[in-house]
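Z., the sequence and structure:
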Amino acid sequence: PPKLSILNNCSASQLEGLCSFLQLSTCPEPFLVRFCSWLLALSPDLSYTSAAILAEQLFLRRVLSLTQPPSRHLMAALTSFCSKYSHPFCRVLVAAVLQGPGEGAEQTKLMCELVEECLEPHSVQLVLSQVLEVPLSEKLLPVLQAVLGRQEVLPPELLDLLVLTMCQQAPAFSTSLDFAKLVTAVLTVYQSQVS
């Protein structure tokens, strides 16, 4: 709708206030899908800051509170939003999931699915760099596996950081089958660059 052009004219604080007024963080999921389709049609595109605020308002609470797989409506909305605004989405949501306490099994599965199916190559690299900023855990190994499964060409500095991180933290994973799979994946995908 033409009224949505207001999103391009709001300051950050005004946009947060508008999201709060519209109760976007708790709106029904079918409406969320429709709202995200409207965002895709918006011209000009949202600014990075506006997209990050909307990612937080629309998805953060929903994703962090997942205790079972996301509904098809939530998945459709996430996929739709990621198709155009994956960079701000990753900055907001992936960071929050990585820093979240506990196992977060559903959040981890969701991140893997987004990496495997939705994110652009530059956003996959962003996810990898975010994962490498925190200590590795069993929870994060499937995310790294999903990143490597994309077989993207990584910048040398990012590949070096991945290998260095794995070498430094290997003793903590001496009995981990997932870590062994990860090492095998790195040696397979990047065999020409890893000595």
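The CA atoms of residues 18 and 80 lie 21 Å apart. The chain has two domains: 1-100, 120-194.

Let me know what you think.
H.
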